[in-house]
Write a structure and sequence with these properties.
The chain is of the alpha/beta class. The chain contains six helices and ten strands. It has helices spanning 47-54, 80-87, 103-113, 118-131, 147-159, 177-194, and strands spanning 5-14, 21-31, 36-40, 62-67, 70-71, 88-91, 165-169, 197-201, 213-218, 221-227. It has a six-stranded mixed β-sheet. A four-stranded antiparallel β-sheet has the order 2-1-4-5, with helices on one face. Helix 4 crosses helix 5 (147-159) and helix 5 packs parallel to helix 6. It is globular, with a radius of gyration of 18 Å.
């Protein structure tokens, strides 16, 4: 079985001695290509720490992390910043678009960072905006876009480097139910059509019916896992 992301016995601690805090406690995780995967849990459960490790923002204290089969922390020196740029897309809660750049320019930025410029970059950027149905807003600044439009532009930006995995941190939290559901269905479409693995950290139980699999974290450990086929039909998959 090929996994885009595979974590084995991840441990993350902060501090030493009596001040030592173990945020992740031997966590295992495996995500397939094209899978829409949700991570849930209360505040302090380790969701953000896990996302930062998977996004190569922080290193685990112990354990292994593989991206596309490559063992990232096996003693070899790697350019983690380059790996982030080339292999991972990020979607944030409030879109995090650069306010003084247009929608088109926001999408072109990650392309420039990986060396794609000029006509090729513009064509690709506009294709992504068109795919996400916001091409008509390409020359608008973020403040001129609705919340749903901003999130669609943010998704286009995350897709620009053709990542095999996208990490989404509370992508529907700033949206109302209708727009939030629209974004989750869009993420499902992307994972299915493009084969991109998408990991979504969320508190929003309304959106869980749209994902393929969901795990729940408590105190840095996986305490529950539900797949689409085993989820109850009338109740949210996971209750807080």
């Amino acid at each position: 079985m090929e996994y885009v992301v595979q974590a084995e016995k991840l441990v993350k601690t902060y501090g030493e001695g009596h001040n030592r805090v173990e945020v992740l406690k031997g966590l295992d995780l495996a995500v397939r290509p094209g899978e829409l995967f949700a991570i849930m849990g209360p505040s302090g459960s380790g969701k953000t720490t896990l996302l930062n490790i998977l996004g190569l923002v922080i290193e685990p204290t112990e354990g292994r992390l593989r991206l596309g089969g490559e063992d990232i922390y096996n003693g070899k020196r790697r350019d983690l910043q380059r790996l982030r740029r080339e292999r991972i897309g990020f979607i944030f809660q409030f879109a995090n678009l650069i306010p003084f750049l247009t929608a088109r320019e926001n999408v072109l930025l990650p392309l420039e960072l990986i060396g794609v410029r000029g006509r090729q970059a513009v064509q690709k950027g506009m294709e992504l905006l068109d795919y996400l149905e916001v091409a008509d807003r390409a020359e608008h600044l973020p403040e001129q876009l609705s919340g749903g439009e901003r999130q669609r532009v943010a998704i286009a930006r995350a897709l620009a480097n053709e990542p095999r995995v996208i990490l989404a941190d509370e992508p529907t939290a700033s949206l109302d139910s209708e727009r939030g559901l629209s974004v989750m269905r869009l993420l499902r479409k992307l994972s299915s059509e493009r084969g991109t693995a998408i990991l979504v950290v969320t508190h929003d139980t309304r959106m869980i019916g749209e994902v393929d699999r969901v795990i729940r974290l408590i105190d840095g450990q996986v305490v529950d896992e539900v797949t689409e086929s085993t989820a109850p039909s009338e109740q949210p998959v996971i209750q807080h």
